[in-house]
Amino acid sequence: MASRQVLLSAAAAIAAAFLLAPASAEVFTVGDAAGWTLKYPATWTEGKTFVVGDSLMFTYPSDKHNVMEVTGADFKACNVTGNVLGTWNSGSDALPLAKAGRRWFVCGVGNHCAQGMKFLVVTADSTAQSPSAPPSSSASFISGAVSQAIAAAGAIAAAAFMF
Ligand SMILES: *[C@@H]1O[C@H](CO)[C@@H](O)[C@H](O)[C@H]1NC(C)=O
Ligand SMILES: [Cu+2]
Predict the structure, then answer these.
(1) In Å, how far are 1, 10, 34 from 43, measured between CA atoms?
(2) Pocket residues for ligand 1 (CB within 6 Å)?
(3) How many CA atoms does the CB half-sphere of 46 hold within 13 Å?
């Protein structure tokens, strides 16, 4: 009986470790290796999935470029004197993607937007990707001892994820 309980504990611990593993927030470097420059590849967003909690990192020489968030219409027209929703110019701007939806970014310097320094980011709701809650029946056999095993397994799993 003891070994059966140990097995159950181990199974519960492993399941809990997976369920409790947090979805890690990603930081996307805008333009990948080229950064936010005129050499920036317009295709850098392709194949990437942006989720609430992720963030965009704009890296650029602050005397040459900036970051402007605009509306979809102004984005299309490269209008940087219209409804500007935000401007950043530190040269190292981290912008969290705090909610789901579309956001349009351009460079507001000279005609850089027309030269291609512009992109749309579509952020998906994070709940769409999180694992479903465990069935309530699985909680019924979780005793204090199992909870401790789960905590230990969780700590081990957390340590494993750091490598
Ligand atoms: C930019 O947007 C503003 C506000 O909507 C508008 O007044 C202006 O004419 C636009 N400029 C261009 C070049 O489209
Ligand atoms: Cu620019």
Answers:
(1) 59, 45, 12
(2) 77, 79, 81-83
(3) 4
CA-CA distance, 32 to 41, in Å (whole number)? 8
Give me the phi and psi of 124, to 5 degrees please.
-90, 155
> What pTM did the predictor assign?
0.68
The class (CATH top level) of 24-125 is: mainly beta
What is the best residue among 68, 71, 74 to mutate for testing ligand 1's pocket, by most ligand atoms within 8 Å of CB? 74
Closest ligand to residue 60's CA: 2
**Cβ contact 85:63 at 8 Å:** no
Are residues 80 and 109 in contact, defined by beta-carbon separation less than 8 angstroms? no
CA 50–ligand 2 middle distance (angstroms): 23
Tens digit of each residue's pLDDT (9 = 90 or more) over 33-81? 999 999 989 899 999 999 999 999 999 999 999 999 999 999 999 999 9
96 near 25, Cβ under 8 Å? no
Domain boundaries, the chain: 1-23+136-163, 24-125
